[in-house]
Amino acid sequence: MTNEFERGGEMVHDTELRDLFAPRRPDAEEFAAGVAERLAAGGGGTGSSHVGWWRRAASWLPGATQTGGSNLLALLFSIPGMLTFGVFALFCHQRDRLETQVERATGVRDPFWKQYLRRHAMAALYAALPIAGSLLGLAFMQLRHARGGTTVIDVATVVVMLAMGLVTFQLGQFARLRGARTRSVAMFVIGLQLTVLFGCVLWVQILGVFDGNSMFGYGATGWALAAGILTCAVTSILLARNWVGGGLSLLVLALVPSTTVFGWPDNSAAAIRERLTAVVERLRTDDLGDWRFAAHMVAVLEEAQEPGVELSDLRTALRSAIDNGLEPHPAVWQAAHRMGLIDRAGWQTLAARPKHDRELRRILSGRGSLTTEPFYMAMLRASDALTAERATELADRTVRAWPHPEATTIGLLDRAVNCIRWLEGIGHGDRIREHTAMLHELLRRHHVREADAEPYAFPGGFSEAPRQGRSTTRATSAALEVIARVGCPEDIALGHVRAYLRHNSGRTLSAPADEPVLKMLARADYYRLTYTIGVPMRGPLEFLIGERMLLAALLLAVLSFRAILLAHRSEAGGPETRQGALP
Questions:
Q1: Under DSSP, is residue 11 helix (H, G, I), strand (E, B) or coil?
Q2: Please, are residues 152 and 205 in contact by the beta-carbon 8 Å criterion?
């Protein structure tokens, strides 16, 4: 081995490290036998002994849907599981109770003082709803950083369930006062949904809630609530023949753009092409620009076998730069190599330049580094210097240059990607699979789980250095390139990686040309993960539990809509009401 590691400014050879830790290294056979003995003593992981009961008890903690479907009983009896089915049960109960509540209340005549107190209590409730939404948002922000986004989703689901009960209670109060008038009920249910939207979605979504078990994302809850608010507003206008408060209606309409900002991002292939076209138009050969991001988006479209964009202008500009002897940043040559913008003659011209010729000689002599700038392999192929023997030698050197999982330096994932590209470029891509275990360990050490994330940092992605608590878009992009070759470790949930990319690629109101390049990179990687790498499918139970907040918001909207219809029937004096008993 020729790997070397930097410790305190001193280069320590790999063999010295192995000799130093050799006495502490356990015997492989003894270790395997010990593991087998402990598994046998603990019930073999079948869940049939006390181990299964401990797992079930542990699953009562918030966010216990990390079982991944391996223990459906624990998943069913976890807090998220019970909340999910509790939402359905509460909705069915409140739906049947709404009509009964109106029928009972419309025949009751309360004393004046009770009606007076009820009116003032409802006025105070109207005034308190916006304040409650803001306070909820602030509380959820703190809870998200203290306990994680999964806990926020659980608590927010409880808030929606309480809102369902409040809809039924208030409808009965309206009926006891002066009949369930359509306008009054509509104002209340719209205000209640606005409170949930502000407190449980918009304020929390500003910093991001980790929703790794959700396919649609937490922002989709905002879309559901906004659709419910608009439906209730339009219905009340049609039934009551007047606006439900001019200011409130304007506020409802103003919230629609807000929900689109934090809603479902457009990460389709067409959106990637649109952004790529905007980037390509501003690329120049005399500066670094966004070449790396453009090359990545081109590669993603090619992997998915999607149509690309027109690159003839870039190809002409690079040909002109080569002919005129220009020497841009190496990242430009690397991006041009990935996009296939330079032909064989162009690489031959570049290889003949003194600067590149010296580097090629160093690489062929065994002194040059193979961990950076893989575009030199294109020069080697164009100059016919890459014989079969030299390709094998370079492959051996590349394998020895793999980043060690135990290293703590920054950029290990980028180094692994460069080694992969070298092996593929010199025709030895089959040797990548030989190092799957090592690359999986490298991915584990860079993955940022929810429990390990720093405050105000969104988990689910990958960090620049091992064991860091802050994900970055660039490190996650490099990790996905590794995953595309060797697969993903079983203990890394790709759904969580998708949640991180969805968070970083959210919809903005800026034009494609003005969108940050890191957001464009996240869009491309989201598409790559979804349609090229693939995310494991979930069963129906896991789907319901993962989308518990979205389902709760939809059912709240349906319940509010039904309350408006019942109020209109009561106000119109339908045959099933006793409106005539009121004064």
A1: strand
A2: no
Question: How long is the chain?
Answer: 583
Q: Determine what percent of the chain is predicted with pLDDT higher than 70.
A: 67
pLDDT at 553 over 90: yes
Q: pLDDT tens for residues 183-216?
A: 778 888 888 888 888 777 877 766 667 778 888 8
Contacts for 401-406: CB closer than 8 Å, 24+ residues apart: 401/3, 401/369, 401/370, 401/371, 402/3, 402/435, 402/438, 403/442, 404/3, 404/5, 404/14, 404/438, 405/438, 405/441, 405/442, 405/445, 405/466
**DSSP-assigned letter for residue 452:** G
Give backbone dihedrals phi and psi of 12, rounded to 5 degrees, phi first: -110, 130
Distance CA 54, CA 56 (A): 5
Rounded Cα distance between 66 and 489, Å, is 15
Instruction: Confirm if 59 and 67 have CB atoms less than 8 A apart.
Output: yes
pTM of the model: 0.74
| Cα atoms in the 13 Å half-sphere on the side-chain side of 341 | 30
3-state secondary structure of 289: coil
